[in-house]
Design goal:
The chain has one domain: Pyruvate-ferredoxin Oxidoreductase, domain 3 (3-Layer(aba) Sandwich), CATH 3.40.920. Helices cover about 45% and strands about 20% of the residues. The chain is built from 8 helices and 6 strands.
Amino acid sequence: MNKDILICGVGGQGTVLASRIIAASAMTEGNTVHSAETIGMAQRGGPVTSHVRIGEAAYSPLIPQGSADLIVGFEPSEVVRNIGYLSEDGIAVVNTTAIKPVTASLSDSGYDGTEMVEYLKKRGNCIFVDGAKECEMLGSVKFLNILLLGVAAGSGKLGISVDTMRSEIEKRVPEKFREANLQAFDKGCAIAS
């Protein structure tokens, strides 16, 4: 299997854990995996991008422009910023809930992600998830990363079995949060089907 997966969001959303679960799941299934993260000002709400390349065709951890099979986007403007990585037949899983950057908060701009979502709808090949609504039903926004992983796995575009992903979540999430995260994952799988 050869897959290129880009995960993007802002600091604190759990993008790094999501990329590690994908990479570990792919390795568990016997695949070669290369990954890289660009974190930047993540601790201050800045952009976070993770590249996960699965398979023997990947000689570098960085995904070339126009070749990602899947983008898992935790924030709509980050998906727009990274959309050039998506291949013609790739899909993007997009959380429609915007995270207002610090600069927008300070200037009291009206950024709410609506324009970004509209742009992505016109582009097509996206699965949209109202992360705020879904996470409210789950009891915390902290389940967003696992919810979006569920959507990615349920879409079939990830190429990794749902059972393998569940097993990696069980290994990597602390016991007191494990059951809630597994529920978030299952809910995400249901959204995609």
